[in-house]
Design brief:
alpha/beta, six-stranded parallel sheet, elongated
Length: about 475
């Protein structure tokens, strides 16, 4: 392909030359009588030949297979150049660079009615690129601070939420990569093992090591980083906390040498993608697959509020991810006893106003609670779902909201924040507590499956969402 560039801007000429593939030809032209010799010399040095007078354009047989780029500061000069090109070819595509306008429209009616002409305003492009560069500088400075607060001579424990999800797992992997650490120098740990089938599939397929630890062990850890979870999520004190990177709402103040919380981001993985790009850390296919899956799942495939950073992360990670592996993660098999829980939720649930409630009773795995919370929203026309079940000595609640009137995270904190770990987002949230603590809080409340509700003299969960 041949490119014909008509310009009087030597500085931009370098950029114009770069848009053409190496194998294509680029020819430069300038208006007759131009006295900008310095610009001409710069173009000549770059292009290897004296820029041709615009009248020489007729020496080339221009067709629709060619491309014409016009970058002239003066409006009259641009009109003249457009007319010259159109006199030689009615169909060749023309791209007009406008250095002064914020709009994508320029020129008279004849120009704008021409489907073969498009205008590229430079001001908004340069502004956007400048903002990106300023942001990169800011992130680089953040990373320098983060690296300084973590003693490189001591292990850094990366503590995740109970039963960690793909976003938290991928974020922990990214933190290891950015700090240049491995599973020994930066072990990934959690108080409660991974239980959800999709997450177990991710750990197995990606090959991530996550160690279950006790509160006593964490208390003795040399230094700790929290990703995708705030410190107040845990009811125990987190000593030696050095780093917090999260996107959940800050409900209580906490302190750490390095804190980066982006509440408007849909996934913590998106924060780490910015870190990786700014630090020029290579994103391997393994890490790219994990981060892609983290962004995809935590934003519900962009089904809830997200930021431009989430879209940018998704676009950057898409070609790096192994989509065959992701397909395997998303389609784990259910065991027969797990299917029974789904059947139970279909048979036994309560709908009041626009809220659906379901007590699952004793269940084999905690991860069934959030899965059923998603599932029961398909029954009837509810806008809010609250599902709970019992595993061992604990009770887990999951809330789902598809109405802006109810913030699932706020509801869970209000109902359970004083007796267990609770929190989440507008659309999804979770709470976990000891069953004994829940019974004590509810006093004479019932916890059986048949009633599918929890009542106490001061907390009525079945009524709470409509009045929250």
């Amino acid at each position: 392909m041949r490119y014909f560039v008509i310009t009087d801007n030597s500085g931009l000429a370098y950029g114009l030359h770069a848009i053409a593939p190496d194998r294509d030809e680029v020819f430069y032209f300038r208006l007759k009588g131009s006295k900008k010799e310095r610009r001409g010399r710069i173009i000549e040095e770059m292009n290897g030949a004296e820029p041709r007078d615009l009248k020489r354009l007729k020496d080339f047989k221009i067709t629709s297979a060619n491309r014409v780029i016009i970058n002239l500061e003066n409006d009259e000069d641009r009109e003249k150049a457009v007319g010259n090109v159109r006199s030689l070819s009615k169909s060749v595509p023309i791209l007009l660079y406008d250095p002064s306008s914020d709009n994508i429209k320029w020129g008279g009616s004849d120009t704008m009615d021409d489907p073969g002409i498009s205008v590229l305003p430079l001001k908004p492009i340069l502004k956007r690129r400048a903002m990106e560069k300023w942001r990169q500088i800011e992130i680089k400075r953040k990373l320098e601070r983060m690296k300084k607060v973590a003693d490189k001579n001591k292990p850094l424990w990366i503590l995740l939420q109970n039963d960690p999800d793909p976003d938290s797992i991928a974020s922990a992997m990214a933190l290891q990569a950015i700090l240049g650490r491995n599973d020994k120098s930066a072990p990934i740990v959690t108080f409660k093992r991974v239980a959800r089938n999709e997450n177990l599939a991710m750990i197995s397929i990606i090959g991530v090591k996550i160690r279950e630890v006790t509160e006593a062990q964490v208390a003795r850890a040399p230094q700790i980083a929290l990703v995708d979870i705030p410190p107040n999520y845990f009811k125990c004190a987190i000593n030696n906390l050095r780093i917090v990177v999260d996107h959940h709402p800050v409900l209580e103040k906490y302190d750490a040498p390095y804190i980066d919380v982006q509440e408007h981001y849909g996934a913590t993985s998106s924060i780490f993608v910015e870190y990786l790009v700014a630090s020029e850390t290579k994103i391997s296919q393994r890490l790219g697959t994990a981060l892609y899956y983290g962004v995809k799942t935590d934003t519900l495939l962009f089904g809830r509020d997200v930021s431009n950073a989430d879209f940018s992360a998704f676009a950057l990670l898409w070609p790096k991810a192994n989509h065959y592996l992701i397909m395997q993660m998303e389609r784990p098999r259910l065991k027969s006893e797990e299917v029974d829980v789904f059947v139970r939720a279909l048979k036994e649930h309560t709908i009041e106003k626009s809220c659906i409630f379901s007590c699952l009773g004793r269940i084999p795995k905690e991860d069934l609670v959030p899965r059923l919370a998603d599932f029961v929203l398909q029954i009837g026309e509810p806008e809010f779902a609250l599902v709970w079940g019992f595993v061992g000595r604990e009770c887990t609640f999951s809330a789902r909201s598809i109405t802006p009137k109810l913030h699932a995270g706020d509801v869970m904190v209000k109902a359970f924040g004083m007796i267990g770990s609770a929190g989440g987002h507008q659309s999804m949230a979770r709470a976990t507590m000891l069953t004994s603590a829940l019974k004590k809080e509810l006093k004479a409340g019932t916890l059986d499956r048949k009633s599918t509700r929890l009542n106490s003299s001061h907390t009525d969960i079945s009524r709470m969402p409509s009045s929250a």
